[in-house]
Amino acid sequence: MSILPETKLGLKENAAQFWLLVLVNGFVGAMVGLERSVIPEFAETEFHLSGHTALLSFIVAFGVAKSLANLMMGRLAKRYSRKQLLTLGWLFALPVPWLLFYAQTWGWVVIANVLLGLNQGLAWSSTVVMKIDLVGEKNRGLAMGINEFAGYLAVGLVAFLAGYIASRSGHVTYAFLPGIGFSILGLLLTVFLVKDTQSHANTEAVQTKIPLLSNIWKDTTWRHGNLGSVTLNGFVNNLNDGILWGLLPILLATKGYSLAETGLLAGIYPVVWGLGQLVTGKLGDVFCKKQLLTLGMVLQGLAIALLLFADAIPVLITALVLLGAGTALVYPNFLAVVAENTHPTQRPQSLGIFRFWRDFGYVAGALAAGVFSDLLSLETVLLGTALLTLAAGISSEVRMCCTKKRLWSSAVCEPALYTRSN
Fold it and tell me: How far apart are the first and last CA of the chain?
């Protein structure tokens, strides 16, 4: 294991590369933002498909591909460098805007979303791992908060841009043209300016006292108290997000809100989620992450339940703000918990497994929204989602442990207590 003498860990020490990776991840988020606001109209005007059918096929194709790419990234990290995997992710992105622009059948769109899912899984995961490598232990939560904020801010801004282009030009396909520039810029920045971070991981591997996991798949999926809890909560978090994506507009329509009001209200949740991560990521460096994850999931569960009784706008806005705040509390700290409970040599694999289950929850949520909303009432589905989210948060309180002494933290345990040695 070779370590460069000048290799130093820390946000300040690696500021140039860190902020470059933030920019690159912004372009990663921009690619998925292209479709976020225009896919239903694109499907209806170009291929005469209903918005529901298009949304479901988009989520399944994209979500399954992204989940598998996350898993693949963890395995490939044993053979290839972080930079090589980031580059591969951008190569998958290059055909996407062209396929969407020239699509002759809906099958082209599905293929484009498979490629987009591979891009998101490989590229987003790579930037996460590289930032973790660079910053070391001290500001890991802050780094993850900035990473997720940048990615999801780009998703939102480009979704607005795509909608604006489509409405102003009168051609939905024109909304995909910025993706050509995003993919080329992302690839060029990666190839010519991004530096590999393996030496930083090697440096931390020498310094760390975290033991190796005996079975990375089993420990990350469930067996390890901290990692298993984070994986379960990640799955449930994205499951409820997938359900709400499909059912929240329907719920608001049943309460008598117009299409314009629905669009404005539905946007509150992701805005609070995105902006909140700038704060909540840093909170993970100050407080025990167990407390933040429990609080975040409980807030989400209560907010989803509150939506059922939100006939007045102030109550509805309160529910959506709480939902966004709860998601912001957990999202960057999911990644930070995985990082602080895994040995640097196993971290890419563990992160890949976690992100596989987390993003597969999104697919499960979309399918659940489509199936159970037909079999059961809308209120029953949302109440079940709220209870499931609350249960996942409570499981964190029971199973998780603070690995370091933090403000207001309970008993501190050694990582080895959650690890089965060989």
Answer: 22
Residue type, 422: N
Q: Six-digit token pair at 281?
A: 């990521």
Amino acid letter, 407: L
Nearest to 342, CA basis, from 215, 211, 235, 217: 211
Q: What is the DSSP string of 284-332?
A: HHHB-HHHHHHHHHHHHHHHHHHHTT--SHHHHHHHHHHHHHHHHHHHH
Long-range contacts of 369-374 (CB under 8 A, 24+ apart): 369/242, 369/243, 369/245, 369/246, 369/247, 370/52, 370/56, 370/246, 373/246, 373/247, 373/250
CB 238 within 8 A of CB 362: yes
Looking at this protein, which amino acid is placed at residue 78?
K
Longest dimension (CA), the chain: 65
Closest-CA residue to 52 (of 246, 212, 284, 275): 246
Q: Which residues, 6 or more positions from 26, have their beta carbon under 8 angstroms from its beta carbon?
A: 150, 151, 153, 154
The encoded tokens of residue 109 equal 């769109």
β-partners of residue 407 are 287
Q: How far is CA 327 from the centre of its chain?
A: 11
123, two tokens: 């590229």
Closest to 15 (Cα-Cα) out of 122, 139, 123, 167? 139
3-state secondary structure of 158: helix
Total-model pTM: 0.88
- Going residue by residue through the chain, which has 422 residues, state the pLDDT in tens, using 9 for 90 and above: 444 456 899 999 999 999 999 999 999 999 988 887 677 778 878 888 875 666 677 778 888 999 999 999 888 998 999 999 999 999 999 999 999 999 999 999 999 999 999 999 999 999 999 999 999 888 889 999 999 899 888 887 888 888 889 888 888 899 999 999 999 999 999 999 999 999 999 999 998 889 999 999 999 999 999 999 999 999 999 999 888 877 887 788 788 887 567 767 877 888 888 899 999 999 998 888 999 999 999 999 999 999 988 888 899 999 999 999 999 999 999 999 999 999 999 999 999 999 999 999 988 988 887 778 778 888 899 999 999 999 999 999 999 988 776 655 555 665 544 444 43
Nearest residue to 358 (alpha-carbon basis) of 260, 234, 215: 234
> Residue 252 gets which letter from DSSP?
H
**8 Å CB contact between 31 and 119:** yes
**Strands, E, within 43-167: which ranges?**
none
Signed CA dihedral, 260, 262, 263, 268: sign only: positive
